[in-house]
Amino acid sequence: MSTLLGKSLFEVSGQGPAPNKDFFQFSVTKAEVIWRWWKISLRSDGRNTKPGELRESHNDYLDDSLLQSQVSVVFGPRILQYSQALCQGHYDYLERLPDPLLLHILTHLELEDVARLGHTSHRFRKLCRSEEFWEQAVRGHCGAVSAEVEALALELGWKSVFFTSKLQLQKQISRRRKRSQKLLCTDPERYDVDTMVERSEDPESHAADIEPSSESDPGPEQLCTDMQRCGVIAGQGHGVAQGDWSSDSGSSLK
User: Fold this and answer.
1) What InterPro entries does the database record attribute to this sequence (predicted)?
2) Which of 58, 85, 179, 183 pairs as cysteine with 191 (C-beta 3.0–4.6 A)?
3) pLDDT-based confidence at residue 254 (cuts at 50, 70, 90)
4) Cα(124)–Cα(153) distance, rounded to whole angstroms?
């Protein structure tokens, strides 16, 4: 596990609280703690002030109450607690795992737990909202996914497809088929196969037929409500997550 630890364990920077305009940088490496600051002032006596830097070992930092108070004032008590844990050897290995491995781990979690995990850090927020995760969730719940559903996911997004009922998916796929047939009948030479593929990959080409979900990341309660509405919860049969999303030559999904 030690191979997951880079040279820099943590780094944060930002401006001090008002009325202080000074800029600070705080970093924790495997061997030391580094505290840097830049004096920012409109007064003439502060223009020639040079940046400052303080370096301490982990043990010295844990004994330095003055520096710890400065870290708490500038970056908050949570950053202070996190830096103390790092200096004591308590590393967050989960946060340092590569994305493919984290996505695999997420497949074993309930969606309510995924929603809560997405609120723990910026990285998990981005990962839990990513198209890769929701595509993985769709394929994990359904198994076979038809090319038509994949094309629809390019327009709606995999998350919207996951929370869309079978009936709505059938309607949208049917509209796509009718639109494609109409275009082919109107001008067969212009709307060939390659053209239709390009149009299906353009997320703005059929915006009127798209019923996207909210872009905001839902909390655990809202996510659970959406799951119940769409039949994702076990025991309900009308949600898309309970069936096979592959489609035959007809207009329905099996």
Assistant:
1) F-box-like_dom_sf (IPR036047), F-box_dom (IPR001810)
2) 183
3) very low
4) 22
Lowest mean pLDDT among 49-63, 148-162, 169-183, 224-238: 224-238
- Number of neighbours of residue 91 by Cβ within 10 angstroms: 17
For the stretch 6-44, pLDDT in tens is 778 899 999 999 888 899 999 999 899 999 999 887 777
- Paired residues of 14 in beta bridges: 24
Q: Are 54 and 37 in contact (CB under 8 A)?
A: no
User: Among 232, 213, 206, which residue's Cα sits nearest to residue 140?
Assistant: 232
Q: Which two tokens stand for residue 78?
A: 């949570």
* Cβ count within 10 A of residue 144: 11
- What is the arithmetic mean of pLDDT over 44-56? 83
pLDDT recorded at residue 187: 59
